Amino acid sequence: MIGFDRLLQDLANVQIAERENRWRLAHTLKAGYNLCTITERIGFLRSAASHLHCTQNYIRQLIEVSVAFPEGHKLPDVSWTLFRSCVAVSKRSGQDPQKILTDALEKGWHGAEVAAAYPQCARRMLRGRGMCGECNAKVEVRSRVGAGLRLVCPFCVSTDRAEGRQTVDLRRYVTVAVLE
Ligand SMILES: [Zn+2]
After folding, report:
1. What is the pLDDT of residue 34?
2. Do 87 and 60 sit in the same domain of this protein?
3. pLDDT for position 74
4. 102 shares its domain with 31
5. pLDDT score recorded for residue 167
6. In the prediction, which pLDDT does 120 show?
7. How far is the CA of 174 from the centre of ligand 1 (A)?
8. Are residues 98 and 68 part of one domain?
9. Are residues 139 and 112 in the same domain?
10. C-alpha 33 to ligand 1 mean position (Å)
């Protein structure tokens, strides 16, 4: 019979491998997601969830954590739950997920403690307003995320789509407004 210490070491190794594999899964999903055009993304999430026998929500979560903590940021002794909580709190509060994680590690917090420590502060509403130079449509967008995002004209994009010119290159559209 193997010794107790040896068994614990084996268990720790299995857990490290499990976490590393989850990161590989997350980074691979993110790479795939980034290759998709905006219109292909929903289909990608659906197909990935179906192939991996899990929910689209879980796939989205893996991608979000991989975006917030790119390769090189993983820590083998930190649970996935903690990373996930940091991302969730970051989305809610607008604070940097890596800063939230550093804070949590310093204080020895677990996932639920991180969520409880940050107040339920709502993000400020951002606004982007302007007129399209191509079609003269007035565009106004409100969002709590996407500060600095350059908005293209939804009317021009929709017209192109309706007329079968389904372009994936949004760079050809002029910037109508910037979210701020
Ligand atoms: Zn337009």
Report:
1. 94
2. yes
3. 66
4. yes
5. 61
6. 63
7. 8
8. yes
9. no
10. 28
CA–centroid distance for 30 within its chain = 9
Residues 44 and 97 in one domain: yes
Per-residue pLDDT, 63 = 96
Nearest one of 103, 110, 57, 59 to 81, comparing CA atoms: 110
Domain boundaries, position 160: 126-178
pLDDT of the residue at 111: 85
The first and second tokens of residue 122, run together, are 């709502």
What tokens appear for 120 in the block? 């339920």
Q: Which of 48-57, 100-109, 124-133, 160-169 is predicted least confidently? A: 160-169
Does one domain contain both 21 and 101?
yes
Pairing relation of β-strands 138-143 and 126-131?
A: antiparallel
- Between CA 49 and CA 58, with CA 52 as vertex, the angle to 5 degrees is 50
Cα 138 to averaged position of ligand 1 atoms, centre (Å):
8
DSSP string, 99-112: HHHHHHHHHT--HH
Closest CA relative to residue 170, chosen from 148, 161, 162: 161
Residue among 63, 67, 60 nearest 97 (CA): 67
User: Residue 55 Cα, ligand 1 centroid: separation in angstroms?
Assistant: 37
Query: Does residue 55 sit in the same domain as residue 80?
Result: yes
Give the Cα separation of 179 and 141 in Å (integer).
8
100 and 27 both lie in a single domain: yes
